[in-house]
Amino acid sequence: MQRNLPHILSQATNAPLLLEPAYARVFFCALGRESGAASIQIPQNLENLDQAGMELVTGNYMSGDKPRARFYQVVNGIAVLPVSGTLVHKLGGMRPFSGMTGYDGITARLQQAISDPEVKGILLDIDSPGGQAAGAFDCADMIYRLGQQKPVWALMNDVACSGAMLLASACSRRLVTQTARIGSIGVVMAHASYAGQLEQEGVEITLLYSGKHKTDLNPYQALPDNVRTDYQQKMDATRQMFADRVAQYTGLPVDAVMAT
């Protein structure tokens, strides 16, 4: 999944931003690191951070190092963890970034908040239509398990659909705004075929392969009926797993969950 870094840079520089100072430091370090900036200067505290320094600020938790700063706000003993935009498996950042939140970042922040003695409870502030299935179930399971150690609540504010609903259902308690959209317990998958376009352009693609399913879902032909049937069965099984897990977390009947 590519990020349009030039566009983000153009929007984030040479223009006024409404950012909390501590988060602004993390945001620009993350942006600088991703864009390959040699250094970042922060006039307020006379910092001049190179790539290594930017990595420390943004929290290189993927290497196993313990983050040096909190990656959430604590309000009256409650750690507030924003979960917004598209949910992806491995974003590599602690916080939501460029319209995405990583399951890896959610779990890392949760673990940090659980071990924080000043945190008495955790609130997931969710505004997401869902995202990748990869990583979603493991993230939800961790939310459910960690909720046995400290209360983990979900605020569905204002969208918590599909994958985001899975995460919310794993929380100890769920709060919903008056205009929230929630539910959508289902699975969707897209297949793109460029066969017609390639034929018009006089291009013929020949795939050499070994293995019955190696060319399934290839973009150079229309989706064969047998492949469609196979993947439809896989999606149906994933939806059933989805509904079973939400029912387990919430205590709702599986049929009621499937009806959403």
TrEMBL record:
Keyword tags: Hydrolase, Protease, Serine protease
Any single biological process term in GO: proteolysis
GO molecular function: serine-type peptidase activity
Highest taxon of the lineage: Bacteria
Keyword Nucleus: no
Family of this protein: Belongs to the peptidase S49 family.
UniProt name for this protein: S49 family peptidase
